[in-house]
Amino acid sequence: MLSRHKVVRGAALAAIATGTVYRSVRTLRKARSILPLGQEPSSTVLPPTVTVVVPARNEEAVLDNCLRGIREQTYGSERGTGSDSPTLRVVVVDDGSTDRTGEIADEHAAQDPRVRVVHSEGPPPGWSGKVHAMHTGVEAAGQPEAGEWLLFVDADTVLAPELLSKLLGTAERADADLVSTPGGPPEDSSASWPVLMPAGLQMIGENADPRGEGGKAFAIGHCILLRRSHYEKIGGWASLSGRRNEDIAIATAVRDHGGVTRLVEGLSYVTTSGMDPFKQGWDSFRKSFVAGTNGSLPVLLGVGFGQIALSLASPAMVAAGVRTRKPGLVALGAAGWAAQSVSHHRTARVMHANPGLAPVAPFTNAVFGGITLHGAVEVVRGATSWKGRASTF
Description:
By secondary structure, the protein is α/β, with parallel strands linked by helices. Helix content is 50%, strand content 12%. It has 12 helices and 10 strands. The strands form 2 sheets. An 8-stranded mixed sheet has the order 1-9-7-8-5-2-3-4, sandwiched between helices. A two-stranded antiparallel sheet has the order 6-10. α3 (101-111) links the parallel β3 (88-95) and β4. The longest helix has 31 residues, at 2-32.
């Protein structure tokens, strides 16, 4: 009987180690499929219009930098800011702000005729806040134009001047209808980047694919460029009115309607302050996973405890193997530990985070499990509401 128990336990440990390695290898494969940001689009006689929509609620601390970055885009500059038909136009939606967000937006509109401000009182019943704000922005832009693109940018995001041109060029070469890039860390970023980003990218990537394959397509709400024709084809944001993980939802809808979606590595040209300080990064991920699971308490608990258990199983095996002098157990644990470390190093590099914590990846991965458990606690408390930030990252 004892021998049988040992066999079962050994098989279980081997399965855990194999699962950890497989999970890490899959993460590496998906990370490699993220499209690098390319060059500017090929020259055309009439470059397409790009309408930038910025949803903003109580963003007075960051909105000015965001709008300056958009206004300084090199794309469309050949027509000048005073053109009757600018290639680049901007719609800022002041979504019921109680701070100076609306005033800051109005100041930019007074300085630049390409900028328009819409003051909204917030979402009606049945709509999530950010989705309604983006819907309002597109509606304010007017009827679709031939070849038009929509660029959705979070208010806590800053674009480098070349970003839009390069993003359009990347979409052109990939023949994509939607491309999206996360923002990179600002200067003096908090510990949320090296601690949370690698595990966060892995967990989101397990449920959504950078190439738009599988069950869900991967997109990041910081910066999403979408052909307006495909936006209209899916029914726009109105078709996703109640969704809170709106970035993945719209990418998946575009893919399901025949479009091509790609996740792009544009972090050298996009920065976000939405993940700093550490608590803000923690809360952003928490809201993302609550939204992604539709607030399912069993799923959040299962994922949270599963993440912690799977992450710590490898170092536990190493410790147990050393204590009992079983080289095989040490080898199993070391394999899982090494796989997590390699995966952490790669995903940290993708997110422009310091990969120095890769050797302790099992423990940082376990910390991330606490985010999901915190989400379960908030679901019980009923404290899940949109605060104007991106739902993912």
